[in-house]
Specification:
By secondary structure, the protein is α+β, with helices and mostly antiparallel strands. It has 3 helices and 7 strands, in the order E-H-E-E-H-H-E-E-E-E. The termini are far apart.
Length: 150
């Protein structure tokens, strides 16, 4: 059985806020293993006006950021709340990021992510970004859980 969480719950797990909170929902959650993040890419998204005027596309770096947020939410949702209290998940590296097709406004971007392995506070992930089943981008990345500055 898989879980899903809404944006309000995501906000309780991540420090990101608008306009930088990119993921709207996390669905198909398999505890500490995998999930699908939903990103509603809109004509009103903050990057549209400047990237690129008259022909907007979602920047690749924001797709990678959304991958990171999805992975952080999956991890934060899955670990013991007492263990995650006063912690943050930081992106450590990005490997093999490939951008295959432009992500255009007025679409629902699905980020299918998987936790490949964890060692202590370091986690490795991989994922594919899709629109209507078509692969738009894919990447592998690592993140670490760190203490939040008080």
């Amino acid at each position: 059985m898989s879980d899903s969480i809404d944006k309000k719950k995501i906000e309780s797990l991540l420090p990101h806020r608008e306009p930088m909170l990119l993921i709207d929902r996390l669905i198909n959650i398999v505890h500490l293993k995998s999930a699908t993040a939903i990103v509603n890419v809109k004509k009103t998204s903050f990057f549209v006006q400047g990237h690129f005027p008259g022909q907007p596309v979602m920047p690749g770096v924001l797709i990678v950021e959304a991958f990171g947020q999805a992975a952080a939410a999956l991890t934060a949702y899955g670990v013991d709340p007492k263990e995650y209290e006063n912690k943050l998940v930081y992106l450590m590296n990005v490997e093999k990021a490939r951008f295959r097709n432009p992500v255009l406004p007025d679409c629902e971007l699905h980020l299918e992510i998987e936790a490949v392995r964890s060692h202590g506070r370091v986690w490795k992930y991989k994922g594919q970004a899709k629109v209507n089943g078509k692969v738009m981008a894919d990447a592998q990345w690592a993140a670490t859980i760190v203490d939040r500055n008080k």
